[in-house]
Specification:
Blueprint (H helix, E strand, L loop, with lengths): L1 E7 L10 H4 L13 E2 L32 E7 L5 E7 L14 E5 L8 E4 L6 E9 L5 E7 L18 E7 L17 E6 L16 E8 L5 E3 L1
Parallel strand pairs: 2-3
Antiparallel strand pairs: 1-11, 3-10, 4-5, 4-9, 5-8, 6-7, 6-9, 7-8, 11-12
């Protein structure tokens, strides 16, 4: 690398703190309305990943002074359809659900909704959630019944080991005179961050103001470029 020249700084030709605004990502310190999912992302893309000025995709718009280095953007977690089991209500029941007999299961939370279905952790059994009740210890008791046509089917006890997750499915109701029940919902939130800076210093003696320095770099292909 070698220094080529020193000239006056002009923000119309060089990237400064307005780069996010030029990409229309802030208004002036609010990122675009695109929601960024915090987990379970379908893609690793993030609103800040944009084409660079060197590729000619940054449009020249009137700069706007940013009143802070802090910015916000909208985020949302993926909808959760699982609930962690605490244990079987009746420990003496070695064949829960046999003969379509209702059985109680204790869960850590109340995410499941009565009249909805659920799959066991091993994926072999589907049940209908009949009712739920809050227990004194903060856990939730759900009454379930197996769905299917085999009266000899029962849920293996390994599905009730504490820490395993059951998965909620769609509700099943009668075709006539059935009422709506409930559905889980989730709203986006906001997170706050600050701009990061890469600062490289060079001492210049003399009476200097508003100067920029041009450097020449070797490119990977063997050519030269100016920055």
């Amino acid at each position: 690398m070698r220094e080529l020249q020193t000239t006056l700084y002009d923000n119309r030709g060089y990237t400064d703190e307005n780069v996010l605004y030029k990409h229309r990502l802030i208004d002036p310190v609010q990122l675009s309305k695109n929601i960024t999912f915090l987990y379970g992302k379908d893609s690793d893309m993030f609103p800040l990943l944009t084409n660079t000025e060197g590729q000619g995709f940054t449009k020249s718009i009137k700069p706007k002074l940013l009143n802070d280095t802090q910015y916000e953007w909208s985020v949302m977690g993926r909808m959760v359809h699982t609930s962690v089991v605490f244990g079987l209500q009746n420990a003496t029941n070695v064949k829960p659900g046999l003969g379509f007999t209702p059985f109680g299961v204790i869960f850590e939370d109340d995410r499941f909704i009565p009249q909805y279905g659920a799959y066991s952790p091993d994926g072999l059994h589907q049940v209908r959630i009949q009712s739920k009740e809050k227990l004194a210890n903060g856990k939730w008791l759900y009454e379930m019944i197996l769905q299917g046509s085999n009266p000899n089917e029962f849920v293996d006890l390994g599905n009730f080991i504490s820490g395993k997750s059951w998965v909620m499915t769609v509700p099943t109701v009668s075709a006539s005179k059935s009422d709506g029940n409930a559905s889980n919902s989730m709203s986006p939130g906001k997170m706050t961050n600050q701009f990061g800076f890469n600062r490289f210093s060079k001492n210049i003696a003399g009476n200097v103001a508003n100067k920029i320095t041009v450097f020449e770099f070797d490119t990977e292909s063997g050519g030269k470029t100016n920055l």
